């Protein structure tokens, strides 16, 4: 029996792949809508419960606190119990917590429920990219994972539109808006039926019969979409994975430590800049006397910039490579942030803000594609989740840090700092990253181990400390 990797690699682009993309993308859309909605309902909540600025700040960070733990734990569980189970469990957690939070009677209850909801959204977002990456042939993987990330933009725009029409309706408009973001709970029924478990993961866990069954279901669906039989898989000398074990500590083995450091620096710099930018930009502009920051059109324009940002990067992922996408988009985001720091007119602010948003999220599309490709199947989910979780530390710190530094550095200083942070992420990827464009996942893992660190792996295998093929 041919191994799972060779069977997936011979699958051409088709309607079934696009169906998987859309179904998985719904998860990212609703996750982002839930996260963004907190910012829109915060003014209503502050007035309702007479919150201090400190309490409001805690509520603003609540989702990200949960996001950190969700991303960290879901990565580990994804490698232990399977990708599909984690996707479904985290969806249920975030939907139920969000639903209950719509009826919260005190801000403390709302705070803890938003942390639980953030745990679900963080867990789901961290697992979706490695999951889809394992189902798509290498020739199309960059396009699909970049596009999957692009579904986040739909969530932010949907939250802005929903907030604009629903929240002003009544004093309880914010509760209705939160309630609507919990409706994806019904999606779990559909997911349970149509989403396959990752055959790569099943194979790596030694569940070869189940892996073969899932693969046959996928092949049947693909052949139905194509209207013809698939070609025979290429011959391979690789043997099926045999109940291998990985752990968080495996990320720091010599074979992966450079990649792990690079990814953690990249994720921290991008997420720090992203949340600092979107959290503080309207307030900073208003403090500088720009009324444009109060307009609904300004928020929509900044969010809409995410759509061409994500999908242009998704298109370029397979054309020029993930590393080049990340480096070029971060470089252009740095330039845009610099021009934003120098802007002194509304038109200049709109243009610079639009392109800062566009290039920042474009780098994220490359980053989400690039990260799962750095690790073999047994630690792919753990590696992706850990990098995402570390990035959320940046997301937590950015609003707090900018709040303290704005009185000292001013508007110019804050965005010059953002320029510098983005530049650090770019340099980290440029110096430490390797290109993974169009390479099969198995081949990428083999290169890291067999070429770069063969002696160490031989010693690990002989001592039975940790095994990976």
UniProtKB/TrEMBL annotation:
<keyword id="KW-0813">Transport</keyword>
<feature type="transmembrane region" description="Helical">
    <location>
        <begin position="20"/>
        <end position="46"/>
    </location>
</feature>
<feature type="transmembrane region" description="Helical">
    <location>
        <begin position="144"/>
        <end position="167"/>
    </location>
</feature>
<keyword id="KW-0472">Membrane</keyword>
<feature type="transmembrane region" description="Helical">
    <location>
        <begin position="173"/>
        <end position="191"/>
    </location>
</feature>
<keyword id="KW-0812">Transmembrane</keyword>
<dbReference type="InterPro" id="IPR020846">
    <property type="entry name" value="MFS_dom"/>
</dbReference>
<keyword id="KW-1133">Transmembrane helix</keyword>
<feature type="transmembrane region" description="Helical">
    <location>
        <begin position="408"/>
        <end position="432"/>
    </location>
</feature>
<feature type="transmembrane region" description="Helical">
    <location>
        <begin position="325"/>
        <end position="343"/>
    </location>
</feature>
<feature type="transmembrane region" description="Helical">
    <location>
        <begin position="382"/>
        <end position="402"/>
    </location>
</feature>
<dbReference type="GO" id="GO:0022857">
    <property type="term" value="F:transmembrane transporter activity"/>
</dbReference>
<dbReference type="InterPro" id="IPR005829">
    <property type="entry name" value="Sugar_transporter_CS"/>
</dbReference>
<dbReference type="GO" id="GO:0005886">
    <property type="term" value="C:plasma membrane"/>
</dbReference>
<dbReference type="InterPro" id="IPR036259">
    <property type="entry name" value="MFS_trans_sf"/>
</dbReference>
<dbReference type="InterPro" id="IPR005828">
    <property type="entry name" value="MFS_sugar_transport-like"/>
</dbReference>
<feature type="transmembrane region" description="Helical">
    <location>
        <begin position="349"/>
        <end position="370"/>
    </location>
</feature>
<feature type="transmembrane region" description="Helical">
    <location>
        <begin position="261"/>
        <end position="281"/>
    </location>
</feature>
<feature type="transmembrane region" description="Helical">
    <location>
        <begin position="296"/>
        <end position="316"/>
    </location>
</feature>
<feature type="transmembrane region" description="Helical">
    <location>
        <begin position="86"/>
        <end position="105"/>
    </location>
</feature>
<protein>
    <submittedName>
        <fullName>MFS transporter</fullName>
    </submittedName>
</protein>
<dbReference type="Pfam" id="PF00083">
    <property type="entry name" value="Sugar_tr"/>
</dbReference>
<feature type="domain" description="Major facilitator superfamily (MFS) profile">
    <location>
        <begin position="20"/>
        <end position="437"/>
    </location>
</feature>
<feature type="transmembrane region" description="Helical">
    <location>
        <begin position="111"/>
        <end position="132"/>
    </location>
</feature>
<feature type="transmembrane region" description="Helical">
    <location>
        <begin position="58"/>
        <end position="77"/>
    </location>
</feature>
């Amino acid at each position: 029996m041919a191994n799972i990797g060779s069977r997936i690699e011979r699958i051409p682009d088709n309607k079934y792949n696009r169906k998987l993309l859309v179904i998985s993308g719904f998860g990212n859309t609703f996750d982002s809508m839930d996260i963004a909605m907190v910012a829109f309902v915060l003014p209503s909540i502050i007035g309702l419960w007479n919150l201090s600025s400190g309490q409001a700040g805690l509520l603003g960070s609540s989702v990200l606190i949960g996001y950190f733990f969700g991303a960290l734990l879901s990565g580990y569980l994804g490698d232990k119990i399977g990708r599909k189970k984690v996707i479904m469990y985290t969806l249920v957690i975030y939907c139920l917590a969000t639903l209950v939070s719509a009826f919260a009677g005190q801000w403390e209850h709302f705070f803890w429920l938003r942390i639980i909801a953030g745990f679900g959204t963080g867990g789901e977002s961290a697992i979706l990219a490695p999951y889809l990456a394992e189902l798509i042939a290498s020739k199309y993987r960059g396009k699909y994972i970049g596009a999957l990330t692009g579904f986040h933009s739909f969530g932010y725009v949907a939250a802005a539109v929903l907030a604009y029409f629903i929240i002003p309706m009544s004093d309880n408009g914010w509760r209705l808006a939160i309630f609507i973001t919990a409706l994806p709970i019904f999606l779990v029924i559909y997911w349970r039926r149509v989403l396959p478990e990752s055959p790569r993961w099943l194979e790596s866990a030694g569940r070869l019969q189940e892996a073969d069954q899932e693969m046959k279901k996928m092949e049947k669906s693909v052949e139905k979409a194509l209207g013809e039989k698939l070609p025979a898989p290429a011959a391979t000398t690789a043997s099926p994975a045999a109940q291998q074990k990985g752990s968080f500590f495996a990320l720091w083995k010599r074979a992966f430590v450079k990649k792990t450091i690079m990814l953690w620096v990249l994720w921290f710099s991008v997420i720090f800049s992203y949340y600092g930018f979107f959290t503080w930009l309207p307030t900073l502009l208003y403090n500088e006397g720009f009324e444009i920051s109060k307009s609904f059109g300004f928020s929509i324009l900044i969010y809409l910039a995410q759509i061409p940002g994500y999908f242009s990067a998704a298109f370029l992922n397979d054309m020029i490579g993930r590393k080049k996408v990340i480096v070029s988009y971060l470089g252009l985001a740095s330039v845009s942030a610099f021009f934003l720091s120098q802007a002194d007119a509304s038109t200049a602010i709109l243009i610079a803000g639009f392109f800062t948003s566009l290039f920042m999220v474009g780098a994220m599309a490359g980053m989400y594609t690039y990260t799962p490709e750095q690790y073999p199947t047994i630690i792919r989910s753990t590696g992706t989740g850990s990098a995402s979780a570390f990035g959320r530390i940046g997301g937590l710190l950015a609003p707090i840090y900018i709040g303290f530094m704005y009185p000292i550095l001013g508007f110019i200083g804050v965005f010059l700092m953002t320029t510098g942070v983005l530049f650090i992420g770019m340099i980290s990827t440029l110096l430490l990253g390797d290109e993974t464009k169009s390479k099969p996942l198995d081949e990428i893992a083999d290169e890291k181990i067999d070429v770069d660190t063969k002696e160490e792996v031989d010693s690990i295998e002989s001592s039975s400390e940790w095994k990976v093929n």
